[in-house]
Amino acid sequence: MRSLISKNTVTTDYWHTLEDDRIQCDLCPRFCKLHDQQRGLCFIRQNINQQIVLTSYGRSSGFCIDPIEKKPLNHFYPGSPVLSFGTAGCNLACKFCQNWDMSKSREMDSLMSQADPEAIAKAAKNENCKSVAYTYNDPVIFHEYAIDTAQACKELGIKSVAVSAGYVCEQPRAEFYQVMDAANIDLKSFTESFYHKITGSHLQAVLETLKYIKHETNVWLEITTLLIPGENDTEKELQQMTHWVFENLGANVPMHFSAFHPDWKMQNIPSTPTETLLKARSIALANGINYVYIGNAHNKVADSTYCHHCGKLLIGRDWYELSEWNLDKNGACLACHTKCAGQFDTKPENWGPKRQALHI
């Protein structure tokens, strides 16, 4: 059980005291060292009375029901609705943040919605959602709230989905992914210089998280890379990234290459051309990745799923709308009976592209 300090503020487990009486947060590799009352870079973890506490427990920036494909997860119960929520703050400092109004928020009043874990699980059940997604900002920083919600969801048969940058320490990572069913991890680049200069973090910790999820858990894993013109879109880097994914994670981890649009502190960079996304997709396929998609751009061919054995269309997608379904009840190709990697219902749900705000 979490120890309640005050309303919406609970104790955390990952910290230790330094010799100068500061407290070091051990949740993520940033290792913020905090004086009394000081907050970490994420803003929602704070040194209060010589212990690190989570100050946003039970508070959210809002709840929505989305298509699971929007996370993006294309091989985890396609067509199903997912109840999505996040909090405020982030443990990265991405200059291109697409959700900066939430992840960069320093105003706790931006967390207007309140719901305990059991209420979220019940709402997901009542709305016939297959899963709950911890998203919009990184669930790493609201670790305890996400875990308690995932446990409440499990009791009601609801799946849990993490949408994360994967920047987390070993011990909390193990606790977190023990209760998750699927994850989409942002692999923001494949160079340390990009991670250090553009995100204020480090690449190796993310690679370790990817390997951990794939090889040490039963969590379904997909990867997203936002391609930014002139920053992380060279053929050399894409070759290195996709080779690494194939060699370390295998052929069946889906990759998503998404289009950047000017935002936050990188408004001087143009949007990503669709041609760049398609080139990245071609490189990944040539390097052995079986399932590769593009995002934030409309291209039915590159949004759809194909059998990696015979090439037949398995799941047609038009934006977030499913158009064709050529999998049998076991998730195998109707043409050649090769299993498609992922987790599928016997028949797809038909939530479609709609986005529905929800009050809990």
Could you explain how this protein is built, in words?
The protein starts with a strand and ends with a strand. The protein has helices at residues 100-103, 117-126, 143-155, 170-177, 192-199, 203-216, 235-249, 274-286, 300-303; strands at residues 4-6, 9-11, 15-17, 23-25, 33-34, 45-47, 52-54, 59-60, 63-67, 81-85, 113-114, 131-134, 159-164, 182-186, 220-227, 255-259, 292-295, 305-306, 313-318, 321-325, 356-358. It has 9 helices and 21 strands. The model has no long low-confidence stretch (mean pLDDT 93). The strands form 5 sheets. Strands 17-16-15-14-13-12-10-9-21 form a 9-stranded mixed beta sheet. The chain has a 4-stranded antiparallel beta sheet with strand order 1-2-7-6, with no helix packed on it. It has a 3-stranded antiparallel beta sheet with strand order 3-4-5, with no helix packed on it. It is an alpha/beta fold and 360 residues long. α7 packs across α8 (274-286). The protein has 2 domains: 4-54; 61-358, Aldolase class I (TIM Barrel).
What is the gist of this entry?
With 360 residues, the chain is an alpha/beta fold. It contains nine helices and 21 strands. The protein has two domains: 4-54; 61-358, Alpha-Beta Barrel (TIM Barrel).
